[in-house]
Amino acid sequence: MCRLFALTGAPRRTRATFWLLDAPDSLDEQSHRNPDGTGLGFFGGDGRPELFRQPIAAWEDRRFAAEAREARATTFVAHVRHASTGAVTARNTHPFLQAGRLFAHNGVVEGLDALDEHLGDARSLVAGDTDSERLFALVTREIEAAGGDVAAGITAAVRWVATHLPVYSINMVLITADDLWALRYPETNELHLLERPAGGQHGARPLHHADAAGATRVHAADLAGSPAVVVASEPMDEHPGWRPLASGELVHVAAGCAVTSTRVLADPPAHLLTLADLRPTAAASQRQTDRT
């Protein structure tokens, strides 16, 4: 299953060292589980987005590893891809950049011809073949229509998708230099949030996370003295503060790590897909990783 990870400590910059698929004792296993691309996006000191994407497992790309190890930024988003729609290429690798925002998605949306028609001129924002980048283009268009209100744009986009298209999951994370938004919908795939005080549960400790599959690892020594908010596909340590987002819950984390939450979708999708409904490649991309 694709993995989502996002972190914000805005307005403070955090030096976070990322390892993506970098578990020396299980490289072969991990490359079979999430083989199709690895990406890291963040906003550095100048407030500009930086984006590194490769259509291969990260452990195969030493340049990517070097870039990911020393990133220092206010907000981060990372993604490990198991392809469901679109070829294994750099342009189909998450995160995606549009209108100065970075976006990553875990799930499957079908009915792409209808989505393309609905996008109209906004289809030009899409460089690749994925349902994810098309979904982002719809979000971008609706943000513009809402006068720059990101929450309103996300809400309008996902409500249209939930009403008109077959949906398996549209879990997403969107970041700017100062803000983070995360949505879980529907209950199909998990998405978790941690409001982490400075030093973590026990105080004076860096953030050091690894998910159960070993697909995403992050170490941020700066957070021994600074608060942060983390969003991930699953809890990444034993901290008791992890909580699952509810289906349809949109979370906004503003500068200063102020968290607000709104239920923007109360009902399941009008055309809810199951694994049995998906093409074999899409179904394989969405199966839960064994946590044992």
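[next item in queue]
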Amino acid sequence: MTVSTDTADREIKARHRALWASGDYPSVADVIAPLGSRLVDAAGIRAGEAVLDVAAGAGNVAIPAARTGANVIATDLTPELLDVGRHLAAPEHLDITWQTADVEALPMPNAAFDVVTSCVGVMFAPFHQRGADEIARVCRSGGRIGLINWTPTGFIGELFTVMKPYAPAPPPGASAPVLWGDPDHVRTLFGTTITDAEFATEKLVVDRFETGAEFRDFFKDTYGPTIAAFRNIAANRGRVAELDAAMAGLADRYLAGGVMEWEYSLMTAHVR
């Protein structure tokens, strides 16, 4: 089990927690809700299986996984998001344990789970190799890993490219989140720990926004990375105007009749 006590690492994690606690990420999760059930189906989650969902947010995967009858643990670095998930799941009395934990240092024993999942979650942990190593470590031999990540070339990947010049600098040694949407990168991360890896590029249809400006304003209010970018340049009106225009313009380019397609990579594999 990997446990970091490094002061700098603790500071990085504290900033990361604050980032995702800002705004209203559960509203964003509502927009992308279909991805949760898609991943549960792709991973073949069944009743009685032990499932770990890492960087689970408000339970986008954990809740539909528990509806199958699986025994689910949902972990996230940000307890505020888990609180929302706990509230959402309560009326159904689902078998979900909500636990604050860092995907780069999971407090679980080796080979403890039949299935480990993450839906646009682990990709935002700064040190990719740590996250991949932990996911593989806690999944039993013959167990399954299922991941959904935004691709570098899709809408969200382009959004991060647009925001990058305005955003706070990432921690030293951190990798770009959307690299998790590149199959070659993911194969390299997991190396020989997995077998039968399959990748599919799919698109989420989003019909929430009529204009690019509406999308931009929604993300400015709700999405932690966007909030952080605008806070970083708040003192410079010109820069704020630039980012406003760039985000709205990007979204307008993807909008057609009030519909957008957000590309993601779906990966399933077995652990050796």
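[queue empty]
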